[in-house]
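Obj.: predict assembly geometry.
Materials: sequence records (below).
Method: joint structure prediction, all chains together.
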Amino acid sequence: MSLLLGALIIGLILALLSLGVFISFRIFHFPDMTAEGSVTLGAAVAAALLMTGHGPLFATSAAALAGGVAGMLTGILHTRFRINGLLAGIIIMTALYSVNLHVMGRSNVPLMEVSTFASWSAGIAGYFGGGTLLLFNRPASVEDLTILGITVTLVIAVVLALFAFFRTHLGLAMRATGDNDQMVRALGASDSIMLTAGLALSNALVATAGALLAQYQGFADVQMGIGMLVWGLASVIIGEALVGTSRFGYVLAGAVFGSVLFRLLVAVALRWGLDPNDLKLITAVFVFAALVLPGSFANLRRRAQQRATGGGRA
Amino acid sequence: MLEINRIRKTFNAGTANEVRSLQGVTLSIDEGSFVVVIGTNGSGKSTLLNAVAGTFYLDEGSIDIAGTAVTRWPEHQRARYIGRVFQNPFSGTAPTLSIAENLALASRRGQSRGLGLALGSGTRARMIEAVQGLGMGLESRLDNAIGSLSGGQRQALTLLMATWLKPKLLLLDEHTAALDPRSADQVVRITDRIIARDGLTAMMVTHSMQQAITYGDRLVMMHRGEVIHDVSGPDKRRLCVNDLLARFEEVRRADLLDPSAAALLRARYI
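Observations (raw structure tokens):
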């Protein structure tokens, strides 16, 4: 049960990452590599602030802000200095590696001794009496359940806020920018500013995920961002398959479901003896397959149809 | 309303691909005037519209709209004064957004876009009424993605969007060229109706001689980046397709000679 709860919590925390990736990749069609660096940036900023005695709320908000700045820089590199989008993200991601080391002061910061979002949740669990209770006839720790409840609430709040935001005049202009930047300019909005703001929003979410993950795991590590982008993309793809529609609200929620489901699948696979070292390879293969297979299937179907009609004529 | 003053633009200057697109175009357009722009391929007519819209910066010359110098303004800033419809039906609308959402975007052309709800309750009635006016039966599909519509329907909606807030200047860049004849006719009729109804100042580039004759109160013909004919008033009304074809033939003959020889002959015999 605690394995399941742990997977759910991490899946929900990483749902914020998936939402960030959804914004850059799906709304703006911008392959934003910055995310790899801003996951760690969020963790590093939060860890550094927690270690100097700041509260988890302040530390997490500061992490989000730092991520926003990182995303904004990538946007400026791309729009103002005309650097290829992929390269702009890689430049900022590379720079962030050093920044993160400076912020943390070393490559790994343990957070076991300080008050974090997790220990704060544990405090709330104390009000419910703590200990364990039976859930589906399995013992579950009230502490884990409380953390789960708080993460669920947070993620739902973020999804609702994003949903509302993308229905405002500003949010609509952002969605249109990814669709047709020429039209956005012709209607008097700066597509450069829209993209830059969108990347800031995306990376703020990613950094928040990093900050919460570090607090839940109990450490921040300079390597923790590696592979996160593909992870987020995998979640988004699973989410799209889950909801099976392109309606905006559903797709947004799909990114969350995708992240949770993906994490659960990984937890089960690891339980069955999957070597953790193979995890990123498998994720990469999965994303490759998810990107290529739908097209291949369509091709096969078309060819089969052609063969059928061709055979009919012969 | 629009003052274009000796504008010049050369693309890829100093390379083998140098294109002298605009070579000192001067044009003054009065408020409420509907100007049709024609010309051969590569004559600079679309470039002229893009220069006004601000797609690129000029090498020389200036552009004023409604008394304001906009020469150094970027494209999105000029959108405050200008409504545009493009040749490509895909260029004017956001395909994954719904008809209503596209119209909501247009309802803020050139204004600040805040955190107000884009599709407020008051806007819907006006949208239905405006879309009904197109006579395409789209009013029942306001929540459908625009990507599912035909080119003609998209152009009609783009037109509606460009004129949602009355623009000081409407730029139509061969906006019926990519449509089938029936849709093209329908869209150009809607165009004429909206321009007349709102008393808009408009520039329409077209390849269709028939459109050039039928619509507008002034006709400008371009060739090699210059205005070579400018007809308005009663002369424009008397113009027929054969006149235009004759003009094109003249231009074609002149082109058979290289420019320096043509200049030499002109200097000697005219």
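Conclusions so far: The CA atoms of residues 36 and 204 of chain B lie 5 Å apart.
To do: check interface contacts against the pulldown list.
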